[in-house]
Amino acid sequence: MTPITTFADSRVALFGLGGSGLATALALKAGGARVLAWDDNPDSVARAEAAGIETQDLRGADWSDLAALVLAPGVPLTHPAPHWTVGLAQGAGVEIVGDIELFCRERAKVAPGSPFVAITGTNGKSTTTALIAHILRASGRDVQMGGNIGTAILSLEPPAAARIHVIEMSSFQIDLTPSLNPSVGVLLNITPDHLDRHGTLEQYAAIKERLIQGSDLAVVGIDDRLSREIAERRAERLVRVHVPREAVIAADALIARDAAVFDPDGSRLADVSGIGSLRGAHNWQNAAVAVAVARALGLDAEEIQAGLRSFPGLPHRMEEVGRRGRVLFVNDSKATNADSTEKALTAFRDIHWILGGKAKDGGIFPLVPYFERIAHAYLIGAASDAFAATLEGAVPYTRCETIERAVAAAAEGADASAAPEPVVLLSPACASYDQFRSFEQRGDRFRDLVRALL
Asked: Where does the Mur ligase central domain start and stop, copy by copy (predicted)?
């Protein structure tokens, strides 16, 4: 835990008592703050009370006596409408912050300048965060990893001069962190996402840009327009990362191509060929970013290459579950939209594709250019009719309804294929909520079914 001493002897309101909210309440209490917490979920309130946290419906609180409102990142700050606690705080002139803001203030107090890597982007941030942390740990560094990737930041060990915090940040978390000042700030990419919470794409991009504005060193992917414009506004202490899709190569950028990472002068810095957890051009970008961060933190080429080679990947993100004969089974359940599924489709051929669930806007129409890579599609869940209409006449498909039927049918189809390495790929391009609680539960079920086959 990181005790938050910057609010010692102050009364602090907190709304949102999920995993990170409860961790924040405990960290504030450990640092000497008087915490008044609430949640709309009675079960969350009960868990907080059992942990010794004082709770009260904040509608009845005396806001004139509160030093801050700590808001969970899942609670709307601005769009589609501010949460009722936001209105109460603003009316009383009470600042609104998140748990990572509390970490930043504690870092400034107890270990100013301690290594702090913050990673954001629409896609790839979890893999990149895990990859950076793995490379650093493999080299013997003291590393704490968390934030949006799973472990609440205040559940981690506190900042220290020789301890590196590697933190994934969503746009919601950035919006609640006004003094964000990482040693290294990473922006991978920007594509439309969470516009219901930010209003416009431009506002979403502006929030993402804040992460690198306060960083000592910025590492920015320049393969989309918005990120490229942000990089152009950052004149100093900048590493640009480019994955060329055509012959045009950006000058003065780390280049990721042909499963390798190159310096602007053309010298090879790292090789990711043959690393199953880093398949695909999108992972070449992730690797290049990790190389840039690791170099900035003092690792040499051998340490970086060893870390890349031993990276196990993330569960549910192009996770190689196993093989049966020639057939490779891949769990990409985290691909909950077409943009994410595109990364998997570009990494393989001869694909027996399991897809479906609760569809996002646009469905799978953006994936039409990759249909030639698909041997057969196996449809599950609520999106089956819509997806069948897109596939009709272009890709043979089978309506399976459930993941159990889909895995069995896909395995049979792949076994019968004449391809040298057919792939059974779960990459749903959909949310899971029609049949599963989460993409994790969906991926776990796929993994269990495949292991039973193996």
From this structure: 119-294
